[in-house]
Amino acid sequence: MKKRSSEEIFIETLLALAKSQPVNKITVKRIVDESGLSTQTFYNHFEDKYDLIRRVHSDESLRLMHRLIEDEDYSYRDFIVDNLMFFMKNRDFMENALSNTSGYDSYAIYYSEQGYDVWSRYLVRKYGMEKLPEDIALYLKMYCRICILMMEEWISKMDHIKAEDYAEYIWQMTPVKLMPYFEKLKD
Predict the structure, then answer these.
(1) Rounded to two decimals, what is the model's pTM?
(2) I need a labelling partner for 161 at 20 to 30 A (CA). Which of 28, 32, 37, 114 fits?
């Protein structure tokens, strides 16, 4: 059996605690106490509890993005489906993090900004640009924000729609100006 890292233990502890209370009410002290690890160990890995909250999905999201970039058989649609499946697998936590964080610590804003950053770097590199044109950057930022909000809507109210079908809706809402950039990633 593989030994769990301290980071994995903290993530598992947060996921367990988030089943019974809003993430904005969970303290670092409670996470540390429940994990059986030290406060110093926590701060060796995370800046604060919001850094831990963000880490739950960011590692998976970056793994999927890397796969999209590197694996020619992995489509943009596959990427969306896999993200939706992660949301569903971690439904309680994702709903909690999305609805119980706000302002500077908003999980939805963080995740959409992370998505924008990764996508913009990818598109700049893929198409050999110095930077994204201003209008494309704006459309990409809006699309990333809308996607995370619609993923939240799906897990909280529309999970009767299969992930594969919902991924198609997300694809169809891609702004026309982004289509030339994303078209090759669809299938």
Answers:
(1) 0.80
(2) 114
